[in-house]
Fold this sequence. Notes:
- The structure holds 3 protein chains of 3 kinds.
- By secondary structure, chain B is of the alpha/beta class.
- Among the domains of chain B are: 42-149, no CATH class; 193-335, no CATH class.
- Chain B has helices spanning 3-31, 103-106, 152-158, 160-182, 185-192, 194-216, 219-226, 228-250, 253-260, 262-290, 294-300, 303-325, 328-335, 337-359, 361-364, and strands at 42-48, 59-62, 65-75, 88-94, 97-98, 101-102, 112-118, 123-128, 143-147.
- Chain C is of the alpha/beta class.
- Chain C has a single domain (6-266), classed as P-loop containing nucleotide triphosphate hydrolases (Rossmann fold), CATH 3.40.50.300.
- Chain C has helices at 44-52, 74-80, 99-103, 105-110, 114-127, 143-155, 173-190, 201-209, 250-254, 259-266, and strands at residues 6-15, 18-28, 33-37, 59-64, 67-68, 84-87, 161-165, 193-197, 210-214, 220-224, 234-240, 243-249.
- In chain C, helix 5 crosses helix 6.
- The longest helix of chain C is centred in the last third of the chain and has 18 residues, at 173-190.
- Chains A and B meet through helix 2 and helix 5 of A and helix 1 of B.
Amino acid sequence: MNLFLLLLVELQEATLLVWRAVRHPFRRPLYWRETVVQMDTIGFGTLPIVLLAGFFIGAVLALQTAGTLRSFGAQNYTGRLVATSLLRELGPVLTCILLAGRSGSGIAAELGAMCVSEQIDAMRALGTDPFRKLVRPRLIALMTMAPILTIFANVIGIVGGLVVAITFLQIPSSVYLASAREALNYDDLWGMFLKTGVFGLIVAIVGCRCGLRTRGGTVGVGQSTTTSVVVSIVLILVSDFFLTRLILTLSGTA
Amino acid sequence: MAKKKLSVLDLRIGLMTLVAIMVLVATILTISGDLNPFRRELIVRTRLSNVDGLRPGAEVRLSGVKVGKVQRVLLLPVPESTDAAQTVELELALEPIIDGKPAGERVRQDSKVILGSVGLLGDKVVDITPGTLRAAPVNDGDLIGGASETTIRQIISGADDILANFTTLSDSLKQIADKINRGEGTVGRLVSDAELYNNLERTTAEAARLVQEIRTGQGTAAKLIGDPRLYDDLDAAIRRVEKLLADINDGRGTLGKLATDDRAYLEVVAVLERLDRTSAKLEDAITRLERGEGTVGRLLHDDKLYRDAEQTLAGLNQLLAGLERGEGSAGKLLRDPQLYDNLTETAAQANQLLIDFRQDPKKYLTIRLKLF
Amino acid sequence: MGEYAIEFQDVHLSFGTQKVLDGISFGVYPGETKIVMGGSGTGKSTVLKLVLGLLKPDSGRIFVDNEDITDFSESQLTVMRQKIGMVFQEGALFDSLSVYENVGYRLFERGADEEEIEETVRRMLRFVNLEDAINKMPAELSGGMRRRVGIARALVGNPKIILYDEPTAGLDPPTARTICELAIKLRDLEGVSSLFVTHRIQDALTLADHHATIGDNGEVVIVKNPRGQTETATTFLMLRHGKVLLEGDADTFWNSTDPYIRTFLELD
């Protein structure tokens, strides 16, 4: 099978995966507990690193852009630049890449290990649908936690920029915050939700897919984990481009 | 994963989600401009002929202070004739209370709306003039007048030449100032060259002494009297001086012109005062001379002075001859009316230029702002 | 066709280019234990997976409890699987759950209440003699104990068909014997139909030469069959190169003249 067919098969499998996970949304059992556990693991567990990364990204952004802006006499726009960059691009993309690295690989490893030790088969033998019990909670968790984590990342990023602005750039906090506030608009908001939703979906699908088709023992698990991270990140970046284009077109600023 | 752990997890996620939602809500409210969506805003309308790219959401200011936003930009129906002044209507949403007073009282019926732009990037804002107390307060929905203000762009396009001319003028002035500083040119020399003055001073001093000696008929002076050659020289010198004075009197030559000019008189007075002081010193010296003290006393018995005087007179003669011929700085000054004419002319022109400039700056100033 | 608990009709299955099952046909009567033998990698586990519907055949038909499951959808299979219990190689316990949660898995999923679950779990663990391990984690158990817990888990819900996937592989003889005795108990006292996949002839011997009865005190006793009498409820299925080499009762097996089988028997 050549590459193209392979991709097609993968696409089909991924679609099937999602379909099996989400169909009959109201049929028992609903697996609430699993979903909550996943949301906690993914959301709360990734929160510290998201906050840390967000803070420093905001700080670096402010540091880098202030210099350039100053040559236009526009350093008071720093807040606006930091806020816009975070809201539109860095917040969603970086948060979801962190999620891919942390949660996506975790999912792939966990499901992969279960797969090679026949636990998935056992689950099916015992009458449980692994898609509904394993995949769906993770899917829901990722798609809900990604926007929430991104919001945290954006806020802390703006704060990071603020700290730098006050300490190193001699920009008063009121100026920074006022110009950051100017940057907020509805288009960026719904764009952020769209992006994080799609990225969360990608991380979940890739992680589960890689996990569930692991073959070959511990080596296979390692490979699945690596593949899941790499593919997630690549897909996130590629789709980011197209989503950005879409958002800009729809919001009329393309 | 016992059931009781679930509540802790629940709590943490719930908290996170709650915080995120609150941030979101705050953001949305911030975007929509105010944290209190229930305030009634005062709507003021205005009509303009051109809004130059103004968009809804742009800032509205009162005397430069932000008081609201542009709510709507509406195109009015196509006018009957082409010279209709108003084709666009703006709806401005103002805060209901501005600095303690209701917005309606801050903006009056005779307030005017001006469009402006802010900053290098050309963000558009609407500025409202405060109007006067004579006019009535504004109510919701009222229409106030609009005026268009020149934007930076217009200034830029209309003021091209001024800067160029300004540059040229300042260059010329600069050159002149440089020359003066370096001691070049007539005025320069005059200003920077102390030597001339020193010469004049010395000459005057010597002359005074000489005269005194002649009067007292002593020593060298006697010789002077006895020596016809010296007398002839002196005679010639005196004659020249006479002629000079005659010139001056008639107003010929630069010096003459200067003499008829008040300013020059004042300066001469100053010089004379100096001379006065100098002759005072001289008297002192002569006294000593009479008492036979000092060098001069000796000089009276000394040939040297005679010889010196001879030389000095010769020098003086030369100087005066030179002056008469119009050599050297002072000579040129004395003899060359052209220079004075030039100076006067230049002064007059400068004056004229300044008047012109004041009348119509646009002709002279060009501001060429080249942006990268 | 109506009498079999499990029936395969001319089943073919390939993984990629490798043909694993090449026209397999057999039947398992209710209450019968069929011992499936063959060298490693001959598709024995595959047969079990086909019964469960975890795999689908390329061609042929499969019947479980009089139903043709060959084309069943996942949801139909889920229902059908309630009747089957499978014991996996290595036990395949869920390592993030305790023994209690593992064994009671089916009941947890169904949403039964705590008391019922606990009572059932304890009963099953008593059956496999592991009641003390009820709160341990799978990582704390030995291989044999894990298999036994696996059996206990498979038994919850009282399935009529039990599938054993090399349950004695890698175990020392005494532990292996314990496992076989459990299978005997299930066969004789509970009347389950089963497919017992193994490549060890000792298991075959144990299963064929013993039966379980209730002793005088009421407890279960494993008794060796009298000489010459073998269990009629135990049959053999020998697979080689994806084909059925032999299907028959114990005597047929012991007295087979096929050289491959003789090698198998003599390896003992």
